[in-house]
Amino acid sequence: MAKRVVLAYSGGLDTSVAVRWLIEKQGVEVIALAADVGQGGDWDAVKERALAAGAADAVVVDCREEFARDFCVPALKANALYEGKYPLVSALSRPVIVKHLVEAARQFGADAVAHGCTGKGNDQVRFEVSTRALAPDLEVLAPVRVWGMTREDAIEYAATHDIPITASKEKLYSIDDNLWGRAIECGEMEDPWAAPPQGVWSLTVPTQSDERELVIAFDQGVPVAVDGKELGLVEIVEEVGAVVGSYGWGRIDMVENRRVGIKSRETYECPASLALILAHADLESVTLERDLAREKQRLEIRYAELVYDGLWFSPLRNSLDAFIQESQKPVTGEVRLLLGPGRCIVNGRRSDWSLYDYGLATYDAADAFRHEDAEGFVRLWGLGLETWAARQGPGRDR
Ligand code: ARG
Pick from 53, 75, 265, 361: CA 20 to 30 A from residue 348's CA? Predict the structure, then answer.
């Protein structure tokens, strides 16, 4: 039985109640660890709440730079979109949180970590599988999955135990927020036919209507400047998100396949990550050789799946990252995004490493393409099919 536990603490109702519940029901000492992954919030208040709930200690770790550099950027290089749409907002933050939970467990001499996930979602999978990968000796406790309390029960529990919470009886949505975007689930949206109510959006509320451009510069696949201004990674993500979001662009409404076998209706707003992926993938279209580009696209699907499925700390991800890293050597250049109401499109791209050859592509006098080579090439290209058509083709099939 565990004696000292490091709990991934958000400051919300469930994890606040979990602090006291773990102490009371499991007889453990609780260290609360809050990870700043760019969700914003009053961290002093979060710390105080954890201590008021009974935590022996409360720490806040600023993971923003690390999260951007070691988690979001690899995902960007992989153009990682789960089921073609979702840039893995929550899936990317769980492994960085687990890394710090494990570090804190070592530092505080804890023998377990804990999370506040329910039994129906992907996040429990990510927390637990990542912990197993990094620290198989640590126990993982999942109080919310076992306590059997409804939301009302938890509020009641908080009230009778003097745990300061800000939650009200009716919680409409389950929200998860970080630098890479925002996930909004539950409420009316559990009916996949129902339109998401206007009130759910916060990063993509349209305030701009005049068209403008946003130029994003990449160095070997890493975004390094916006409109010619060199910025740190966190600032780039924040800046792109703020500008693109102000045009009301970056929303996703999808029914996705959770790892645990449930189809779930999800809404997201990811102006920064979607715009960066759009720009990055476009720059690859001129800088990556064709066969490399095609193979990479196949692997991108696998990459997104494994991150979604909680396998960040895995040999497959390491190996895919090595492939992707190698591919990014020429991905240096700029992409022009054009923004308008509800719209973000690529308007141009350039790179010193571009494989776009004007002399080959042009239809004007500068043409350097050897037209006479085409005839033999096309004949041989179609030779197999021509043979097939003569023997087994249309009108000759049995
Ligand atoms: N469905 C998304 C995912 O699995 C979002 C999860 C959001 N988490 C939350 N606690 N609301 O990555």
Answer: 75
Q: What is the pLDDT of residues 255-276, one digit of tens each?
A: 999 999 999 999 999 999 999 9
Centroid of ligand 1 to alpha carbon of 364 (angstroms): 52
In angstroms, the CA 180 to CA 234 distance is 10
Q: Report d(CA 26, CA 6) in Å as an integer.
A: 13
> How much distance in Å is there from the Cα of 228 to the middle of ligand 1?
34
Q: Is 183 in the pocket of ligand 1 (CB under 6 A)?
A: yes
pLDDT digits (tens, 9 = 90+) for 55-99: 999 999 999 999 999 999 999 999 999 999 999 999 999 999 999
pLDDT digits (tens, 9 = 90+) for 111-148: 999 999 999 999 999 999 999 999 999 999 999 999 99
Q: Is the CB of 184 under 6 A from ligand 1?
A: no
Domains of the chain: 4-160 (3.40.50.620), 174-350 (3.90.1260.10), 362-392 (no CATH)
Instruction: Say what percent of the chain tops pLDDT 70.
Output: 99
Mutual angle of helices 233-245 and 271-287, in 10-degree steps: 110
Positions marked catalytic? 14, 94, 123, 174
Does residue 300 have its Cβ closer than 6 Å to ligand 1? Answer: no
Ligand 1 centre and the CA of 26: distance in Å?
27
- CA torsion sign, 326 to 327 to 330 to 336? negative
CA–CA gap between residue 373 and residue 376 (Å, rounded)? 6
CA distances from 17 to 108, 134, 172, 196 (A): 22, 27, 19, 30
